[in-house]
Amino acid sequence: MVNGNNVPGRVLLVGFMASGKSSVGKELASRLGWDFQDFDPVIEARAGKSVSRIFAEDGEVEFRRLESGVAQELLARSDTVVASGGGWPAQPGSWKVVPEDTLSIWLRVSPEVAVRRASAEGSTRPLLDGEDATDRATALLIAREASYRRARYSLDSEQYGPVELAGEILNLMVPAR
Ligand code: S3P
Description:
The protein has helices at about 20-30, 40-45, 50-60, 60-75, 110-120, 135-150, 160-175; strands at about 10-15, 35-40, 80-85, 100-110, 155. Helix 1 (about 20-30) crosses helix 7 (about 160-175), helix 2 (about 40-45) packs across helix 4 (about 60-75) and helix 3 (about 50-60) crosses helix 4 (about 60-75). With about 180 residues, the chain is an alpha/beta fold. The protein contains seven helices and five strands, in the order βαβαααββααβα. Shikimate-3-phosphate (S3P) binds near residues 21, 40, 51, 86 and 87. Shikimate-3-phosphate (S3P) binds near residues 17, 21 and 87.
């Protein structure tokens, strides 16, 4: 997992929508002096439109195709904290592109809290739009949980905020002697 200094080449954050991947990732990157990369904004820049519009106009299959290309590219970088999209770990073959020297972390959140946070952030997540969002989030989380479990560690993202979680991840990167 690590180089001679015991430091991973990159950190990969996975977890459900609104689990805090972006806020934790930014905090961690700034404390490490590393670059931060988030799948969705890169996908949006490439497509020239928002994730919501990609889903509405081109469909989820096209979104996943774009996402897979961006994942491969961002995960090849070093000294980078990478926040994946919430659905990416569950796509076939996704974990195969994660380099060995990657510290992967699953940020755990319940469907209820994810939906509450997502609705507070506005309608940017097509899979949580509309009626019965909590039921759909529950079903998605159940379907995806095994893929999130492939991360090396998991942290509770409901009880702790970005500053504490980034601190926890730093501790995992440089174990106390
Ligand atoms: C998705 C999660 C979103 C975004 C898209 C699909 C998913 O990313 O990629 O709306 O399938 O869970 P966030 O996890 O950053 O919200």
